[in-house]
């Protein structure tokens, strides 16, 4: 199977790519960047993937643009359900590239993270696959969470501390003092 794999970052790609290659899949990566904030963070993630991917024989397609404004406009007033839109946007972009590149299907490294909503990802991926006449490959890569973390540390990779968007950055770093009322 010729598979296009959406990749959010190099550390999250370690285990999924290994598994897919062991399944004799012809895997190519796709780095989606519109949701990652700030741009310096986006570049760190992209550069880490660019440094890592050749070592495992993985070719990667990188988005050229950075449409953070469109991303933010699409989730404004829906911030509490932002992940649903983000999954949709990333998987749709991956499917469109897969369709254009004559891939059999697509998947995502989001399925590696124990912090992501697998049900929403599967539901979204399958709906998009049906629309574009592709296969969405679901595999629960969370089983390799510890392996991926340990390997990324061993390789001294840049490891981000939040999913990517400005809201996940806030969730990660801003802790309001419960005694503060202003």
Secondary structure layout:
Elements: E1 2-7, H1 10-22, E2 26-31, H2 39-52, E3 60-62, H3 68-75, H4 82-100, E4 105-108, H5 118-131, E5 135-136, H6 145-154, H7 166-173
Parallel strand pairs: 1-2, 1-4, 2-3, 4-5
How would you describe the overall organization of this protein?
The protein is of the alpha/beta class. The chain has a single domain (2-169), classed as Rossmann fold (3-Layer(aba) Sandwich), CATH 3.40.50.620. The protein has seven helices and five strands; from the N terminus they run βαβαβααβαβαα.
Features:
globular; single chain; Rossmann fold; 182 residues; alpha/beta
CATH class division: Alpha Beta
Note the run of SSEs as H and E: EHEHEHHEHEHH
As residue ranges, the low-confidence spans are: none
Report, as a whole number of angstroms, the end-to-end distance. 56 Å
**CATH topology call:** Rossmann fold
Summarize the main sheet: 5 strands, parallel
Return the structural class: alpha/beta
Oligomerization state: single chain
On the 0-100 scale, what is the average pLDDT? 96
Strand order of the largest sheet: 3-2-1-4-5
Radius of gyration: 16 Å
- The CATH architecture designation is 3-Layer(aba) Sandwich
CATH homologous superfamily title: HUPs
Task: State the helicity in percent bands.
Answer: 40-55%
Number of domains: 1
Total helices: the number is 7
């Amino acid at each position: 199977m010729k598979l296009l794999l959406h990749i959010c970052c190099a550390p999250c790609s370690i285990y999924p790519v290994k598994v897919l290659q062991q399944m004799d899949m012809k895997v190519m990566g796709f780095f989606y960047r519109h949701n990652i904030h700030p741009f310096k963070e986006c570049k760190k993630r992209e550069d880490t993937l660019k440094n890592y991917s050749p070592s495992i024989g993985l070719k990667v397609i990188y988005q050229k643009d950075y449409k953070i404004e469109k991303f933010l406009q699409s989730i404004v007033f829906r911030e509490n359900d932002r992940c649903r839109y983000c999954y949709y946007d990333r998987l749709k972009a991956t499917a469109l590239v897969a369709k254009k590149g004559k891939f059999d299907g697509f998947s995502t490294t989001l399925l590696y993270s124990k912090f992501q909503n697998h049900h929403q990802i599967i539901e979204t991926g399958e709906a998009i696959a049906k629309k574009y006449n592709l296969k969405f490959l679901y595999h629960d890569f969370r089983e390799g969470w510890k392996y991926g973390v340990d390997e990324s540390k061993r390789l001294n990779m840049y490891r981000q501390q939040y999913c990517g968007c400005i809201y996940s950055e806030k969730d990660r770093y801003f802790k309001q003092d419960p005694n503060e009322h202003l």
